[in-house]
Design goal:
This protein has 386 residues and is an alpha/beta fold. The protein has helices spanning 15-24, 43-52, 71-79, 108-127, 178-187, 205-214, 236-244, 262-274, 312-328, 342-348, 377-384, and strands at 4-9, 28-32, 36-41, 58-67, 93-100, 140-147, 150-156, 196-198, 255-259, 282-285, 299-302, 334-339, 354-360, 363-371. It folds into two domains: 4-156, VC0802-like, CATH 3.30.2130; 178-218 and 247-384, Vaccinia Virus protein VP39 (Rossmann fold, 3-Layer(aba) Sandwich). The protein has a seven-stranded mixed β-sheet, covered by helices on one side. It has a seven-stranded mixed β-sheet with strand order 10-9-8-11-12-14-13, with helices on both faces. Helix 3 crosses helix 4 (108-127). Bound molecules: S-adenosylmethionine.
Amino acid sequence: MKNFRLIAKTATGLEQVLADEIREIGGKNISIGNRAVYYEGDLKMIYKSNYFLRTALRVLKEIEIFRFKDVDQFYLKCKAIDWNKYFDVERSFVIHSTVGKSREFSNSMFASLKAKDAIADYFREKVGKRPNVDTVNPDFVIDLHVHGNSCTVSLDSSGESLHKRGYRINQGEAPLNEVLAAGMLKLANWNGESDFLDPMCGSGTLPIEAAMIAYNIPAGKFRKNYAFENWYDYDQLLFEKVKESNQKVEFNYQIYASDISGSNLLNAKTNARRALVFNKINFLVSDFRDLKIEIQNSLIMINPPYGERLKEKELSNLYAMIGERLKHKFSGNVAWILSSSMESFKYVGLKPENRIDLFNGSLRCKYNKYRLFKGKRNIQLQKKGN
Ligand SMILES: C[S@@+](CC[C@H](N)C(=O)[O-])C[C@H]1O[C@@H](n2cnc3c(N)ncnc32)[C@H](O)[C@@H]1O
């Protein structure tokens, strides 16, 4: 099968874990970019990427790279692409552009507009009609990446962002993006070889993604459609084979999801039911302060409130309580905390072994790892400021 140049897009900080995932499914010539991983693969790889990659937001197939000296030449080079090879006037399309360091294009809207005109004129000249633009539910998604005077044109094989796995209906407050949650689990080396606890689980994104990884349930299992299903070369049989190639695995540990809010926990249960992992997660309404779960050599992941709704004092008390509980109740485990509140981290009172920069939406966050030693080691380290 023919090999293509592929681009998987992701969130800041998840590039390496995405590259690892791509290697695992057989991607070739992998290199890491900014919020993107470049690699090569055939049609089957495009299907596998969309169906299996947990930390990709979308997967693009490169069709053209060109240089241009001004906007007119950009238009002409867009018009010179043989669009008829990919879609026709009966299908709707949309263009997503990103523009960086360009003197010709001050914004991405302008680049999209010029490319749209070029495509419309291409079809008008060829068949006397032009395809419609549909920004909501397009059949065909074109991706333009303009950097300086160079433009990469790709076909978006995913369509809707891949974080829309298809299992979430109930949001709760401030839910994590599924791709970020999966990335946090991968960064923590979660592979289903211990117990897992999220004591502030909200709508359940972390425990659901943890269960999907532990049981090897594909990221795309519940998703209804992908843009590549509208492509001329769509091979349904091949996609079915890709889906069938997945093998479920045994998981012999426990996943715990708890939250102080009964209604948030209800959301988590509903979402877990839709992801077919309801029976694989132990749900519990509890203040973390009083949580009675016993785990050892396991993984704890916390995405506490950041303070949009809480007063400063409440927030410092909450983070101090988290640190105290981790130290005294959950020693012998590893904990990771994601928060945008740098001030609040200080109240945890533990020395992080690792700090990773991530974004939760537009919020810059730290994702800190704490190894919870038994005894006084954490406290001593913190006092010495090591
Ligand atoms: C930022 S949200 C978590 C969102 C979650 N990761 C998701 O994807 O939906 C923080 C959660 O912490 C919970 N929470 C706040 N204080 C708590 C406490 N003392 N004990 C347990 N849960 C608490 C809130 O009810 C809320 O659901």
